[in-house]
Model the fold of this input.
Amino acid sequence: MLAVAAVLVFATTAHAQRGGAAAGTITAVQIQGSVRADPETIRSYLQLKVGQAYDPAAADRSLKALFGTGLFSDVVIDMQGSTLVVKVTENPIINRVAFEGNSKVDDEKLRDEVQSRARQVFTRARVQADVERILTIYRRGGRYNASVEPKIIRLEQGRVDLVFEINEGDVTGIKRITFVGNEAFSDGTLRGKIRTTESAWWRFLSSDDRFDPDRVLLDRELLRKFYLSEGYADFRVVSAVGELSPSRDGFFVTFTISEGERYKFGEVDILTRFQGLDPDVLKGYLLMGEGDWYDSGDVEKTVAALTEVVGSLGYAFVEVRPNIRRNKDLKTLDVTFEIQEGPRVYVERINISGNVRTLDKVIRREFRLAEGDAFSSAKLRRSQDRLRALGFFEKADVSAAPGSAPDKTNLEVQVVEQSTGDISFGAGYSTTAGIVGDISLRERNLLGKGQEFRIGLSLGTLSTNIDLSFTEPYFLDRNMAAGFDLFRTSNNRQAVASYSDANVGFALRSGWAYSEQIRQIVRYTLRQTNIYNVSPFASYVVQAQAGYTTVSEVSETISWDTRDTRINTSKGWLLRNTIAVAGAIGTQQYARTTADAAYFHSLLDDVVLTVGGSAGVVIPYGNSYLRLNNLFFLGGDNLRGFAVGGVGPRDAGTADSLGGQYFYTTTTELSFPLYGIPKELGLLGKAFVDTGSLWGNQASSFGASVLDNSMMRVATGLGIQWISPFGPIRIDYSFPLVYEPWDKIQNFRFSFGSRF
Done:
């Protein structure tokens, strides 16, 4: 409609000009109809001047120039005698821009997108462009049925209200995704490799079932990577087309592909141009061998590994190039990794963008490169990994861009911040502990400084705990963390050991890193413990420990951590050892050590094997003896299938849990996607086997009858974890296979959490 109006205006104007045109010399120029536009400004756009002969071509150019200003809706150029008369009709001024009918997209987002503004000159061309921009927003959201009609409400004094009437329509989903040309893999397999999904009722939390051309481009790349990882080196996507159904209620997406032949690795070798660098030593970093199916991902990982290891040997400017030679007859690919000196490039600047809340220094301190350093792609990747591991950003990309000279480069850091506050809820149930709930609030990037603050509260029928902690990861801008903890806990252990206890105290801690993976933490803790409400029927061991004690403890923890991420870990190691000594101003004297180990390995896509274990020992010294609150207790989270305190030394007469001096646990867990459940739902299955034991208690030396042995307990179980919009939810059901008659069983556990 707008385009037709513009054509009619132009046609009418041209006719008026031709109708009044006459040859002759111009003696005067008269401007008519201008209100806001200065007549001299209009004259400046004219190609016809006083003293010139009238020229239709010049009049036409003048007409186009005046229309090009956007100030006029109509222009007529006419010769009346020897006077050139220019009649203009000015475009109105926009009084306000409004939107009606929009509920899925708010006014502010639409107002930011359109170019028409209040107090701006109204032009139909700009309005038509704004209509297209609004439609583009709705198409990105999958609403291809949306329509926009601009309404112009004329006001006095040459003003108009511009109202965009919007019919948002329904979401246009994807009815079907098909593949043409695939022989090695089924349509279902390929659908699982791309982001775009077919519409289904359970995908209400996802937008991947809406047609998005940008997402289809990503799908092309995902298909290419998948086929290249399976040996199809000649694979290509011929076309990817989305067709809207005739009823405009859904899309049919078709990928046409050419698979090509499948290749294996042929000869794999390393060639180096560095003196003193033995290629045979580096062959241990090759991820492929002759006869293996070709995998481009392994080639990329090998390049990264070789670059990093050679760089760590002191070679600053390293470039690893895979030279791939195709043998179509044998269907093999020979690969030679050529290690050579790359161009000498230095970091000129590190430019950071996208951080609205997080301070620049919080980002810079994670970099393994500084301005002026020799550029290293391995250190660049490590810096990017460290940024992503912070958990502050939804996206953190680091790239190299040309600097002011050929030997200089700028590092461009682009981040997209995400919520760093957590609110977590937990719940559990057992026949001995009843229902327990807890809530904790944590901010991992306090005030954008990278500081962590946490406060937790746990309430239940049998316990109440509150704790507060603060951590500064770079104390005094040094690579040293410092923080403190305040805590108060009370527990009703009547069902487990016929008493209640309360702890109140504080802890000071400091930690530092020896390397990327090795850290050490030193902690001082002072706490007061009160054992009270001791049942008259409790074990006399428990009755003898009623009252207050003070513990002054110094501990040291050293850890080696190579995990890829802290959450949903898929690879890496975690080794940790803690040694603690209590004494000094306290009433308790003991030495304790614990050790933990965990290994994570990705077996297949989204299938992760976790193998871990823990062990510990605590012994008294001097004239002290170990009280209940300084012993180990086993069960619950550290040994599923058993209640808290459900395993270990127990009074034979009262069945009270007495704790133990020695323990160990092991766990083997497999995390896997659930068959037939769409990946985007975020459901994972868990299968696990836990083992462990707890033994050793001084009570037996005092004449008490104690049920105590070191026999291994074994439990197995299944679980489901859902990464929901409200946080991870996990349900476990486990059952013991090997246990003692006096052990306390807990089959069912449930927990959930959320983020804000």
User: Anything to note?
Assistant: Confidence is low (pLDDT under 50) at residues 1-22, 429-433. The chain is about 15% helix and 45% strand. Residues 2-90 form a domain with the Ubiquitin-like (UB roll) fold (CATH 3.10.20.310).
